[in-house]
Amino acid sequence: MKVFVTGGAGYVGSHAVRALCDAGHDVVVLDNLSKGHEQAVDGRARLVVGELADVELLDRELIGGGFDGVMHFAALADVNESVRCPGLYYENNVVNSVRLLAAMERAEITRLVFSSTCATYGEPEACPITEDMRQQPINPYGRTKLAMEWAMRDAVDAWGLGATALRYFNASGAAADGSIGEDHTPETHLIPIVLQVALEQRDGVKIFGTDYPTPDGTCVRDYIHVDDLASAHVLAIESQKPSTFRSYNVGTGRGTSVREIIEAARTVTGHPIPAEEAPRRAGDPPKLFADPTKIQSELGWSPVHMDIESTVAAAWRWHSAHPHGFSPASQEAAP
Ligand code: UDP
User: Fold this and answer.
1) Which domain covers residue 200, as residue numbers?
2) What is the pTM (predicted TM-score) of this model?
3) Which of 86, 158, 242, 257 can pair with 140 through a Cys bridge, CB separation 3.0 to 4.6 Å?
């Protein structure tokens, strides 16, 4: 299968590109490298550096390009930034995504796998979260992802698109060989922040909220290994039928608290990782974890990494070998 991957130089995208190549697929990546990293793109894929907003570029690549499907990762994904700059999020995540749908229609490509998010559920009715629960996002980021899900459903009805929305929980970990991993600037995610403390790049970690209605008072999330997310994408694109919309929650089904993550990181790194209790972060639901039954039964997917320590250990292999991420300094520091 020949697959066009937008955002294939980013964190989840680069792991999916590698999984596609490993499965024998032919991959072309489109990335503007604003957040992604050229070094993250598998050498077997062709990288086109350009903008999703460049409709002529899309037509040039897609029309007559022989593509069977598209995986669409390119998006902005910082919840706090989306609150401050909603226009930027609607432009990147909705307008550009709708342009991609139109380009797919012109190129007659009918398979799409889209990076959606558990943020489309907002404060869920219950946990674990099933796909049929009400989607009521509580921030612009979640709303832009939900808007694209609706645009996909309408394209399914209007011109026969076949589309899958994979609603990710907390992407974490890194490739088993430690060669690609998470590198965001600025970093806002818990696991990389905790590991930066272990690398002595930060003095400590703040625990945002210790008075939540959860067993230890801190927020509970479902940390899904990025390679398990990648395998879900490969299964989804391979099984996609035209004129069909599907949505799947992609998580382990297990919740882990902030304190448990810090504890796992202490075990993995041997560093004491000082932690300080801090006020709640605005917009954080107390508890989010998936019911992954639907993707397990319909696509035969199951996560390989169920143990949080092994996911944190995978992230640690990446961060400790690349203390400055993909930047040139890291290459000097890498063994
Ligand atoms: N968190 C924290 N300290 C940090 C970063 C995150 O306590 O420095 C908490 C955050 O409040 C949330 C959980 O860790 O409950 C996961 O946050 P992250 O930003 O990694 O992912 P999110 O669930 O927001 O997508």
Assistant:
1) 190-221+253-325
2) 0.96
3) 86
